[in-house]
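Retro notes (design track)

What went well: tokenization of the new backbones is finally stable.
What didn't: we kept losing track of which sequence belonged to which structure.
Fix going forward: every design gets posted as structure first, then sequence, in one message. First example under the new rule, 331 residues:
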């Protein structure tokens, strides 16, 4: 069959955009941040370059994340961002690519249409959508076509998608707006309340990655950070410990655990037995917070595994799903 341009799979994440090209694998991994001139509405930077500007721009330049909690919050900027990434991946080809895009499991029809429209306007010839947990399961190497239950917990930047998958479809699922971003917000609030210091999103993310945990550590790690003292208004250095991060992060972590619990409660007994045998698979960058797998295992009594290359799982699954595009296209 004659193929027009290359097929692209896109994990349209709140924090990161990952693109997969058929036959080449993951070719792009950039933050979903766009810097826009607020006067002319012109896009000045996209991706890594724009992320460096977060919290450091003059009044006329706004560095924003056009996707919030897994859905498009700024349509125009998302369209421009997608155009930039599709062109970067596709290069100079005459034909526009067919594109498969990941979406959270519980998005509305309006939100689905916004993604399709934005991708079409950005230059995709045809757009297909795939639910994140299903893409994550495929990317984690699970054979989802079999008639047995698999549970996937995909923790991204904006949403956590939890699904029980059997026979290629989602039997029971939920999507909650508690994920990487909420962990960052919890750290900002905690540092402000406990130390009376204001820190930015990037510092909070550095803390989360370096010393963040949701399960007590054997050794209490420390990290020095700088923020603005709310009493004097001047910059101030403080040392933060991982035991403090545990206090800050346990609440959002428990919300994820409770959501997993509620999905398990609604799962048919036969599939519950399968999950008990096979365990729970965790994917997405948010699942890499230290101790989250142990916390979930302790609270559910089910073995929890973190997928290999958890961050790229959804994009890899989207890429593997591209192999069936010809069948979908005919349909």
């Amino acid at each position: 069959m004659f193929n027009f341009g290359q097929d692209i799979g896109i994990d349209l994440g709140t924090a990161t955009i990952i693109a997969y090209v058929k036959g080449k694998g993951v070719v792009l991994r950039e933050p979903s941040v766009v810097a826009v001139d607020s006067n002319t509405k012109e896009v000045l930077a996209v991706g890594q370059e724009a992320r460096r500007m977060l919290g450091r721009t003059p009044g006329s330049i706004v560095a924003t994340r056009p996707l919030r909690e897994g859905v498009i919050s700024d349509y125009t900027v998302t369209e421009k961002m997608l155009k930039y990434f599709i062109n970067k991946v596709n290069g100079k080809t005459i034909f526009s690519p067919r594109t498969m895009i990941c979406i959270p499991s519980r998005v509305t029809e309006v939100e689905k249409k916004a993604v399709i429209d934005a991708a079409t306007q950005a230059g995709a010839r045809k757009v297909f959508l795939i639910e994140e947990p299903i893409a994550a399961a495929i990317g984690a190497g699970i054979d989802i076509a079999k008639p047995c239950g698999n549970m996937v917990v995909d923790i991204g930047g904006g949403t956590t998608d939890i699904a029980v998958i059997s026979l290629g479809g989602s039997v029971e699922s939920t999507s909650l707006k508690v994920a990487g971003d909420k962990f960052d917000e919890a750290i900002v609030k905690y540092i402000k309340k406990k130390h009376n210091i204001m820190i930015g999103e990037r510092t909070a993310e550095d803390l989360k990655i370096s010393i963040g945990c949701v399960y007590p550590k054997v050794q209490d790690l420390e990290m020095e950070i700088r923020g603005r003292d709310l009493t004097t208004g001047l910059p101030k250095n403080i040392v933060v410990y991982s035991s403090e991060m545990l206090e800050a992060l346990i609440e959002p972590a428990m919300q994820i655990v409770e959501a997993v619990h509620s999905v398990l409660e609604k799962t048919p007994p036969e599939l519950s037995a399968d999950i008990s045998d096979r365990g729970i698979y965790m994917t997405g960058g948010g699942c890499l917070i230290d101790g989250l797998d142990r916390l979930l295992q302790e609270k559910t009594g089910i073995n929890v595994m973190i997928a290999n290359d958890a961050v790229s799982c959804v994009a890899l699954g989207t890429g593997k799903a591209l192999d069936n595009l010809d069948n979908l296209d005919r349909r």
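Added context from the reviewer: The chain has a mean pLDDT of 88.
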